[in-house]
Amino acid sequence: xxxxxxxxKAGISPGNIRFYEKKGLLKPKREESSSYRSYTEExxxxxxxxxxxxxxxxxxxxxxxxxxxKEEAKTLLEKQEEVLxxxxxELEGSLLLCRKLKQEEDPLKADxxxxxxxxxxxxxxxxxxxxxxxxxxxxxxxxxxxxGGSGWFTAxxxxxxxxxxxxxxxxxxxxxxxxxxxxxxxxxxxxxHIVFWSGLFLVYNxxxxxxxxxxxxxxx
Length: 220
What we know:
extended, single chain, 2 strands, 10 helices, 73% helix, Multidrug-efflux Transporter Regulator, Chain: A, Domain 2, MerR_fam, mainly alpha
């Protein structure tokens, strides 16, 4: 059968099928006469199985290991269960904090120390809160340091220090851009992945703009 029919039977788009083929999850045969891909009922069944595991938030890479027999399904699912439970705990903490803040007459004027104390107390009792802000902050500090012209950079690379920093900076920028863009093409789309990598890309750009602004002020 053609890709359109296979997509209809599997309940996904032809684009999804091409994506899974690109990732090596599906390898349909090609017709000798036309070189077009020819999909079988087994391929459709495999696509449905892939979709089920993706709905369990398993990565494409993990599913590939499962389908290739390189990973035991139950073992991988147990690991995934732990990951999802961790995410749920983080969401529980964040949800509790949102509800508490919502009770304030003006959440923006709420005492931050009171809430930080509340968060620490809850964390001591085992509740988790989203670590995203801390992670983004660490990336921001790193990129600012990278652009900031550290002494060791000059000591190691000498007169090539600025060029090396430029290459590394451009490389990091392209990496974050690629990871953010790739999350939009990921099938099915994972909102959490999009937010995370887009956030890193945004922080990196803001760090560069801050550095550039400081540079211009210094020059003036």
